[in-house]
Amino acid sequence: MMKKLSIFSLLFAALLLSGCLGLTQPTDSDIEAMAKDKFNQEFRGLFLADTVVKDNGYKKNDTNYVAELTITGTAQRSLDEYAREIMQDSSISPMDRMKQTFGIGVLKMTLPEFEQGDRIDFTRNYLFIKTDNGWMIKGTLEEKESESLI
Protein backbone atom coordinates (compact mmCIF):
# COMPACT_ATOMS: atom_id res chain seq x y z
CA MET A 1 0.00 0.00 0.00
CA MET A 2 2.82 2.43 0.90
CA LYS A 3 4.64 1.52 -2.31
CA LYS A 4 1.54 2.34 -4.39
CA LEU A 5 1.09 5.59 -2.52
CA SER A 6 4.71 6.68 -3.09
CA ILE A 7 4.50 5.79 -6.81
CA PHE A 8 1.25 7.74 -7.06
CA SER A 9 2.85 10.70 -5.26
CA LEU A 10 5.86 10.59 -7.56
CA LEU A 11 3.69 10.49 -10.70
CA PHE A 12 1.49 13.30 -9.37
CA ALA A 13 4.54 15.46 -8.63
CA ALA A 14 5.97 14.81 -12.10
CA LEU A 15 2.69 15.74 -13.77
CA LEU A 16 2.35 18.84 -11.63
CA LEU A 17 5.88 20.00 -12.44
CA SER A 18 5.51 19.34 -16.16
CA GLY A 19 2.26 21.31 -16.18
CA CYS A 20 3.82 24.20 -14.30
CA LEU A 21 6.97 24.32 -16.36
CA GLY A 22 5.31 23.74 -19.71
CA LEU A 23 7.23 23.49 -22.95
CA THR A 24 9.50 26.49 -23.14
CA GLN A 25 10.69 25.81 -26.66
CA PRO A 26 9.38 24.03 -29.75
CA THR A 27 10.53 20.47 -30.35
CA ASP A 28 13.15 19.82 -33.02
CA SER A 29 10.58 17.97 -35.12
CA ASP A 30 8.18 20.96 -34.90
CA ILE A 31 11.00 23.31 -35.88
CA GLU A 32 11.90 21.14 -38.86
CA ALA A 33 8.32 20.81 -40.11
CA MET A 34 7.44 24.49 -39.70
CA ALA A 35 10.76 25.66 -41.20
CA LYS A 36 10.25 23.44 -44.27
CA ASP A 37 6.74 24.85 -44.74
CA LYS A 38 7.94 28.45 -44.36
CA PHE A 39 10.88 27.93 -46.73
CA ASN A 40 8.70 26.19 -49.34
CA GLN A 41 6.21 29.08 -49.21
CA GLU A 42 8.99 31.65 -49.50
CA PHE A 43 10.56 29.93 -52.53
CA ARG A 44 7.38 28.42 -54.04
CA GLY A 45 8.09 27.21 -57.56
CA LEU A 46 11.82 27.81 -57.28
CA PHE A 47 13.23 25.69 -54.42
CA LEU A 48 11.96 22.83 -52.32
CA ALA A 49 13.42 22.20 -48.85
CA ASP A 50 15.14 18.84 -48.50
CA THR A 51 16.73 19.00 -45.07
CA VAL A 52 16.60 21.30 -42.08
CA VAL A 53 19.47 21.24 -39.60
CA LYS A 54 19.16 23.18 -36.35
CA ASP A 55 22.60 24.72 -35.85
CA ASN A 56 21.66 26.51 -32.65
CA GLY A 57 18.72 27.94 -30.78
CA TYR A 58 17.95 30.15 -27.83
CA LYS A 59 15.02 31.42 -25.80
CA LYS A 60 14.41 35.15 -25.91
CA ASN A 61 11.82 34.64 -23.16
CA ASP A 62 9.18 32.05 -22.24
CA THR A 63 7.11 32.74 -25.36
CA ASN A 64 9.82 33.50 -27.96
CA TYR A 65 12.41 31.08 -29.31
CA VAL A 66 14.96 31.67 -32.08
CA ALA A 67 16.17 28.71 -34.13
CA GLU A 68 19.31 29.15 -36.21
CA LEU A 69 18.92 26.77 -39.15
CA THR A 70 20.64 25.54 -42.28
CA ILE A 71 18.07 24.56 -44.90
CA THR A 72 19.18 22.65 -47.97
CA GLY A 73 16.91 23.38 -50.92
CA THR A 74 16.78 21.73 -54.33
CA ALA A 75 16.17 24.01 -57.31
CA GLN A 76 12.96 23.13 -59.13
CA ARG A 77 14.06 25.22 -62.14
CA SER A 78 16.72 27.80 -62.95
CA LEU A 79 16.15 31.41 -61.97
CA ASP A 80 15.92 32.42 -65.65
CA GLU A 81 13.20 29.81 -66.30
CA TYR A 82 11.34 30.99 -63.21
CA ALA A 83 11.54 34.63 -64.36
CA ARG A 84 10.26 33.71 -67.85
CA GLU A 85 7.27 31.89 -66.34
CA ILE A 86 6.37 34.90 -64.22
CA MET A 87 6.63 37.29 -67.16
CA GLN A 88 4.37 35.05 -69.27
CA ASP A 89 1.75 34.47 -66.56
CA SER A 90 -1.23 36.63 -67.51
CA SER A 91 -2.97 35.97 -64.19
CA ILE A 92 -0.37 38.07 -62.32
CA SER A 93 -1.26 41.74 -61.92
CA PRO A 94 1.24 44.34 -63.16
CA MET A 95 1.97 45.40 -59.57
CA ASP A 96 2.62 41.80 -58.44
CA ARG A 97 4.76 41.21 -61.53
CA MET A 98 6.84 44.26 -60.63
CA LYS A 99 7.27 43.00 -57.03
CA GLN A 100 8.31 39.57 -58.23
CA THR A 101 10.72 41.05 -60.77
CA PHE A 102 12.36 43.01 -57.96
CA GLY A 103 12.57 39.81 -55.86
CA ILE A 104 14.16 37.93 -58.74
CA GLY A 105 16.74 40.71 -59.09
CA VAL A 106 17.63 40.37 -55.42
CA LEU A 107 17.96 36.60 -55.80
CA LYS A 108 20.25 37.07 -58.82
CA MET A 109 22.52 39.27 -56.71
CA THR A 110 22.57 37.03 -53.62
CA LEU A 111 22.57 33.48 -54.98
CA PRO A 112 25.12 31.70 -57.13
CA GLU A 113 23.96 30.60 -60.57
CA PHE A 114 22.01 27.36 -60.37
CA GLU A 115 20.13 24.96 -62.59
CA GLN A 116 17.25 22.60 -61.93
CA GLY A 117 18.35 19.91 -59.49
CA ASP A 118 21.16 21.93 -57.88
CA ARG A 119 21.19 21.97 -54.09
CA ILE A 120 21.94 25.16 -52.16
CA ASP A 121 22.33 25.73 -48.42
CA PHE A 122 20.37 28.64 -46.95
CA THR A 123 20.95 30.03 -43.46
CA ARG A 124 17.81 31.19 -41.70
CA ASN A 125 17.02 32.47 -38.20
CA TYR A 126 13.34 31.89 -37.52
CA LEU A 127 11.48 33.39 -34.58
CA PHE A 128 8.97 30.98 -33.04
CA ILE A 129 6.25 32.25 -30.71
CA LYS A 130 4.20 30.27 -28.22
CA THR A 131 0.47 30.70 -28.84
CA ASP A 132 -2.67 29.21 -27.34
CA ASN A 133 -2.51 26.62 -30.13
CA GLY A 134 1.17 25.75 -29.68
CA TRP A 135 4.35 27.04 -31.29
CA MET A 136 4.35 28.80 -34.66
CA ILE A 137 6.83 30.73 -36.81
CA LYS A 138 6.41 34.48 -36.43
CA GLY A 139 9.00 35.38 -39.04
CA THR A 140 12.56 35.46 -40.24
CA LEU A 141 15.01 37.49 -38.16
CA GLU A 142 17.88 37.47 -40.64
CA GLU A 143 18.12 36.16 -44.13
CA LYS A 144 21.47 34.98 -45.42
CA GLU A 145 21.96 32.68 -48.34
CA SER A 146 25.21 30.80 -48.43
CA GLU A 147 27.05 30.64 -51.68
CA SER A 148 27.86 26.95 -51.64
CA LEU A 149 26.36 24.59 -54.15
CA ILE A 150 26.18 20.97 -53.02
Structure description:
It is a single chain. Helix content is 41%, strand content 37%. The chain is an alpha+beta fold and 150 residues long. The chain has a 4-stranded antiparallel β-sheet with strand order 1-2-3-4, covered by helices on one side. It is elongated and about 75 Å long. Keywords: Signal.
Care to give the gist of this entry?
Keywords: Signal. With 150 residues, the protein is α+β, with helices and mostly antiparallel strands.
Q: What portion of the residues fall into strands of 2 or more residues?
A: 35-45%
* Category by helix and strand content: alpha+beta
Task: Give Rg in angstroms.
Answer: 22 Å
Amino- and carboxy-terminal Cα gap:
63 Å
What topology, given as strand order, has the largest sheet?
A: 1-2-3-4
Name the helicity range: 40-55%
Task: Report the sheet with the most strands, covering strand number, pairing sense and barrel closure.
Answer: 4 strands, antiparallel
Count the DSSP helices: 4
- The string of secondary-structure elements, in order, is HHEEHHEE
Mean pLDDT: 85
Name the poorly predicted regions.
16-20, 143-150
